[in-house]
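Holo model, zinc ion. Inputs:
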Amino acid sequence: MLSQISLFFLGLIFSLFLPRLPLVILPRFRAMDGQLAPFPSPQPIDKHLVAQLLLLRTIWNASFLFAVTPLIISYLILQSQPVPLVFGLFIGSGWAILSRLIPAVAFSIPNTPYSNDLIHEINELRVSEPSCCNNPELNWEVASVCCCNCRYTHLAHARPELGRVRSDGWLGRLRLLLLDGHPIVSVNEK
Ligand SMILES: [Zn+2]
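Output:
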């Protein structure tokens, strides 16, 4: 009985985190280094950032396949054999899909950290000429996009995971798996 329960949880955890692996692994290859500021310093609003956000959005969207495929395969197996491991896979991948579809804060479906609207807003900030002070320099800090000279907040949106090579080891990777690209802080947008 105990081994059956552990097999169920093994399948559940595996399929729950499988769709999140591409975002944890892919952007951190040297070949995919988007010329961003080193982690964890604030990221300047420039064309490299916009390109990186588009890439991350593609990876995030494509990794839905890693949830849909186990869901279909485990459903087909369950038709003939009710195995605990496969049942865990089925529940886990269904859960993974729901957690990505149901909006957490604002009403945007899917619940992506790299929405079109956000990338559009960042690009607008990049091309516009901010007039907050004499020497505007826009950076995406942990909680918002602000000017590092006058501290004026240009966009109250917490920074999602940017796929930069991290220096915080296993703890950082675990955090990435749990957050699925979403920022660690939530900001009330006005
Ligand atoms: Zn300024």
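The longest helix spans residues 84-101. The pocket of zinc ion is lined by residues 132-133, 136, 147, 149-150, 152 (CB under 6 Å).
Archived with the compound record.
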